[in-house]
């Protein structure tokens, strides 16, 4: 590889992109505050397996938006060639495929599972006990 | 070589095999591809287990998950990502002192992140929210509580019968009379109180072994003993454990995801320490800073998903 071959690639890599990085950082902070607000303020929604679906969809959408901001601007994917799709598609497909493949068997099943937790006797905590525990700073 | 010259003579750009990025950057992106799958395996498993466990613990008073800690750490990592991207920008502009300042800021924020994480881990350790340590039903909670009672009595007996002479509580019981023959009246009073408390413990343990003990009466009995002035000083710190259904799998997934993430933060800190303290930073390290930045943004990306999954949902 000669210097002549290597140079154009380096020029692409370090070309000035004129991104207002502080603005991106500000947007990421605002999105984080939205996530925290979703936890602090009571949002009505259907609860399945202890998960408030509205809150879950909201905060995961916000997380996806934040991830896209980071990948697009901080990781400069906006300015990269089409190789990014070739390189990232297989891993992202596999990454989404794993939970989808496990979901029908472990996550969402119509049959009762024979695990100790289902037959165990569990006494619920009283409110006074919870209040005592919550005094701890951790 | 001659081929390259010929193409240049015709005015066309020189041909280059492979992708139009430096090899090091390609290597980092390929590595990040494997890292995506590495973390998705944990995150995906967590999501699936969570959906498959109807009574998954999500009350912060039970799990000791504090949103302020996770939220602060999110801001800390976002700020560090911003600093590393402007450090790379400074490297491109050949402003090395400014780049160094930003890299130092990134390193400092990584320390803050680990400090907050350590505080959170200390909370889990303090409340014994550890894999394999959590009682998941009444019987396990009672066994654990009586185990703590046993350890507490062992410590109290050790004041009179050292561990070097008898390590087990049963041996200490046998030896205590011979060891405290010449005890002062005040000490004798304390020893009698300890023996009386031990009797209460033995009675509770016998009930538990005969499967006649229930969790609520055990908690009430402990509270009553703590209110008794004779035992109050001896029982300091003893709390009845309560069952946390799916608590162990919760703790396993929590420590697996956050632990591997924290390890990645430590690796990132080592990568940033190299241009800060080990080598003399100049413009030739621009690619290095960019590649470390890519890695660091990935660490930030993982946390962006861990934060809502662990702390909010």
Can you put this structure into words, describing what you see?
The complex is a heterodimer of chains A (138) and B (313). Chain A has 138 residues and is an all-alpha fold. Chain A contains six helices and two strands, in the order H-H-E-E-H-H-H-H. Chain B has 313 residues and is mainly α. In chain B, 74% of the residues lie in helices and 0% in strands. Chain B has twelve helices and no strands. The relative contact order of chain B is 0.15. Classes of the chains: A mainly alpha (138), B mainly alpha (313). At the A-B interface, helix 1, helix 2, strand 2, helix 3 and helix 4 of A face helix 2, helix 4, helix 5, helix 9 and helix 12 of B.
Structure at a glance:
The complex is a heterodimer of chains A (138) and B (313). Chain A has 138 residues and is mainly α.
Query: What distance lies between the first and last C-alpha atoms of chain A, to the nearest angstrom?
Result: 57 Å
| Class based on secondary structure composition and strand pairing of chain A | mainly alpha
End-to-end gap of chain B: 59 Å
Helix content of chain A: 55-70%
Could you give the count of β-strands of chain A?
2
The number of helices of chain B is 12
The largest contact between protein chains, plus residue counts on each side, is: A-B, 75 and 85 residues
Tell me about the largest β-sheet of chain A.
2 strands, antiparallel
Please give the oligomerization state of what you see: heterodimer
Radius of gyration of chain A (CA) equals 24 Å
N-to-C SSE series of chain B?
Answer: HHHHHHHHHHHH
Compute the number of strand runs of chain B.
0
What coarse outline of chain A follows from CA principal-axis ratios? flat
The residue ranges of chain B in which pLDDT falls below 50 over 5 or more consecutive positions are: 1-7
């Amino acid at each position: 590889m000669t210097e002549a071959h290597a140079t154009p690639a380096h020029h692409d890599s370090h070309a000035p992109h004129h991104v207002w990085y502080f603005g991106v950082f500000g947007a990421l902070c605002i999105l984080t505050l939205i996530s925290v607000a979703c936890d602090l303020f009571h949002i009505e929604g259907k609860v399945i397996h202890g998960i408030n679906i509205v809150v879950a969809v909201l905060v995961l959408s916000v997380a996806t938006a934040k991830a896209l901001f980071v990948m697009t601007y901080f990781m400069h994917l906006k300015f990269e060639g089409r190789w990014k799709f070739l390189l990232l598609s297989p891993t992202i497909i596999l990454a989404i495929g794993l939970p989808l493949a496990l979901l029908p068997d472990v996550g969402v099943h119509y049959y009762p599972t024979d695990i100790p937790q289902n037959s165990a006797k569990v006494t619920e905590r009283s409110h006074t006990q919870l209040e005592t525990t919550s005094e701890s700073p951790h | 070589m001659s081929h390259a010259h010929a193409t240049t003579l015709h005015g066309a750009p020189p041909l280059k095999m492979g992708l139009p990025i430096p090899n090091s950057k390609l290597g980092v992106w390929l590595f990040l591809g494997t890292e995506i799958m590495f973390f998705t395996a944990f995150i995906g498993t967590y999501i699936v287990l969570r959906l498959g466990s109807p009574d998954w613990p999500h009350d912060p008073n039970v799990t000791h998950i504090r949103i302020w800690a996770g939220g602060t750490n999110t801001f800390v990592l976002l700020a560090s990502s911003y600093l590393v991207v402007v450090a790379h920008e400074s490297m491109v502009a050949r402003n090395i002192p400014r780049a160094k300042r930003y890299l130092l800021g990134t390193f400092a924020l990584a320390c803050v992140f680990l400090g907050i994480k350590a505080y959170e881990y200390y909370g889990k350790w303090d409340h014994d929210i550890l894999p394999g340590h959590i009682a998941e039903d009444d019987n396990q909670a009672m066994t654990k509580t009586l185990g703590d009672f046993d350890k507490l009595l062992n410590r109290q007996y050790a004041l009179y019968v050292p561990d070097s002479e008898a390590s087990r509580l049963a041996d200490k019981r046998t030896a205590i009379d011979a060891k405290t023959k010449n005890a002062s009246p005040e000490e004798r009073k304390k020893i009698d109180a300890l023996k009386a408390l031990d009797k209460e413990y033995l009675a509770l343990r016998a009930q538990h072994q005969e499967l006649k003990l229930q969790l609520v009466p055990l908690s009430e009995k402990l509270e009553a003993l703590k209110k008794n002035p004779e035992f109050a000083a001896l029982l300091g710190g003893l709390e009845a454990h309560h069952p946390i259904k799916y608590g162990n799998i919760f703790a396993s997934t929590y420590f697996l995801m956050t632990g591997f993430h924290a390890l990645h933060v430590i690796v990132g800190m080592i990568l940033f320490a190299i241009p800060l303290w080990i080598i003399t930073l100049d413009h030739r390290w621009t690619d290095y800073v960019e590649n470390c930045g890519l890695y660091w943004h990935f660490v930030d990306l993982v946390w962006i998903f861990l934060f809502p999954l662990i702390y909010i949902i």
